[in-house]
Design goal:
The complex is a heterodimer of chains A (191) and B (276). Chain A is of the alpha+beta class and 191 residues long. Chain A is built from six helices and ten strands. Classes of the chains: A alpha+beta (191), B mainly alpha (276).
């Protein structure tokens, strides 16, 4: 059993409410995002399609950031999520070079790295991560991936073409993709 | 000049390790030589390298914490082996100053430093080759790091200790030539091969390298001409201009590898979303 995020891309409208809620919860300055909504186009006019992909830490069960961290600042919490101990971090940024999902972010003002902790403090109080509750389309959920899979059906995937090939990391993510998000001719778009 | 700190760290520590390789060989081949100049230069380079590495950290005064994860992290192992190498190096320098008659201990420690140093170079290369930066993930990283170690170490050792280093000129020059041949044979085909890879991050790195084509050319010109010079010099060790030409060769090899290492860090593009 692993805890992780579920994203329903078929419902996501790219409003970035999740991104803003995350920024607000973590008090992040301009340029630092623990949750980032990406926009991609596939196909060509008149058959072009746009989709949105909301990404944060994947809390991999075999995380490269944890393996690579020389201080142990990146570690697994008892619930299996990847957490960061700010006190142990020396700001070497090796996790930034190791994570293929752009989750760890170096904060210049603090001289350390920080990342999405899946709002562990809020979850420990029995509530949802800020991004989940902020989503007006209810396309984000967080929980036991086995239960989320049962709830949302069998046509879920753990990767789509825009994501790096990283099955060895065992990312804790379930995605309900739009059909055209599985096409290979994606181009990133600013929306 | 982003990553100049890591460029200096890796080149200086590898140069110090390289010098000690030839010091250790020289001590076996020359009965009385201690190669003071080379050992002290290695200590100086090691200290410069370690200080430069601290500049890379957000919290340099907490650097000791990088030793906590030897069992898991290649970066932690790299720091461990660098620290042990430096400790052995300082011990050798102190023995040379205070108890230079204890030659057996000095030679034993020198070979210990070489062994730890070679493992350290491997750890440095593994630190980068296991990251999510595709351009660093090939054997070329290991070859480039060992090539810098041996090339720079050999010429600096000859330059600093050539009066004591009887019989070492030929060995050092041939070592430089051999490692440069391996470097060209592995690194050039590697970059030709990766150009056909579909990774967007890899192509991002290649694009950066292409935009710095002049620096890349200078790297290879300096390394190849420095190698030719040191081979040429060995033929006529007694010539009057030997010392200045040796200094020129050392400068070219050091500068070539320094520029190459700068390009190594400059080409950093991490695999990311949309860059698969």
């Amino acid at each position: 059993m692993a805890l992780g995020f579920y994203l329903d891309m078929t419902m996501c409208i790219g409003c970035r409410a999740c991104q803003v809620a995350c920024k607000d919860k973590n008090n992040l300055r301009v340029g630092i995002l623990f949750r980032n909504v990406h926009n991609y186009e596939t196909g060509a006019y008149p058959n072009s399609k746009l989709y949105h992909y909301s990404s944060a830490c994947y809390h991999c069960t075999d995380a490269k950031c944890v393996k690579g961290c020389p201080t142990g600042a990146m570690h697994y919490a008892k619930d299996g999520t990847v957490q960061h101990d700010d006190e142990l971090c020396i700001g070497c940024q090796y996790c930034v070079w190791n994570c293929p999902y752009e989750a760890p972010q170096y904060i210049d003002e603090l001289n350390i790295v920080k990342k999405c902790d899946s709002c562990k403090d809020i979850r420990d109080a029995g509530e949802n991560p800020a991004c989940v509750d902020a989503c007006p389309m209810r396309c984000l959920e967080f929980g036991d991936l086995d239960e989320l899979r049962k709830k949302h059906g069998a046509d879920l995937v753990t990767s789509i073409p825009i994501l790096p090939t990283s099955s060895s990391l065992k990312p804790s993510i379930l995605i309900k993709p739009r059909s055209y998000a599985l096409e290979l001719d994606f181009v990133e778009k600013e929306v | 000049m982003e990553h100049i700190d890591l460029t200096l760290f890796s080149i200086c520590v590898q140069a110090a390790i390289g010098i000690m390789i030839f010091v250790a060989i020289g001590m076996l081949l020359n009965k009385d030589a201690l190669f003071k100049n080379s050992v002290f230069a290695a200590v100086g380079l090691g200290v410069i390298g370690m200080l430069a590495s601290l500049l890379h950290l957000g919290k340099p005064f907490s650097a000791i914490r990088a030793l906590y994860q030897f069992g898991e992290s290649w970066l932690s192992r790299e720091i461990w082996f660098t620290a042990i190498f430096m400790a052995l190096l300082v011990l050798i320098a102190l023995l040379i100053i205070l108890k230079s008659d204890n030659r057996r201990a000095i030679i034993g420690l020198a070979w210990g430093a070489v062994l730890v140093g070679l493992v350290d170079v491997f750890s440095m290369a593994a630190t980068y080759s296991t990251s999510s930066v595709p351009i660093w993930q090939g054997n070329a990283t290991f070859v480039e790091f060992y090539a810098a170690t041996i090339s720079i170490g050999a010429v600096l050792f000859l330059l600093l200790s050539f009066k004591e280093a009887v019989n070492m000129g030929r060995i050092a020059a041939l070592a430089v030539a051999a490692i440069v041949i391996v470097q060209v044979a592995i690194v050039v085909p590697y970059f030709v091969a990766v150009a056909g890879n579909s990774s967007a991050a890899l192509h991002g790195s290649l694009g950066i390298l292409a935009s710095m084509g002049l620096a890349n050319s200078l790297k290879w010109i300096a390394i190849l001409s420095g190698t030719v010079m040191v081979l040429w010099l060995v033929k006529g060790e007694q010539s009057k201009s030997f010392e200045s030409l040796l200094a020129g060769s050392a400068f070219l090899l050091f500068a070539g590898h320094l520029v190459g290492r700068y390009l190594f860090y400059a080409s950093l593009v991490v695999t990311g979303i949309g860059l698969s």
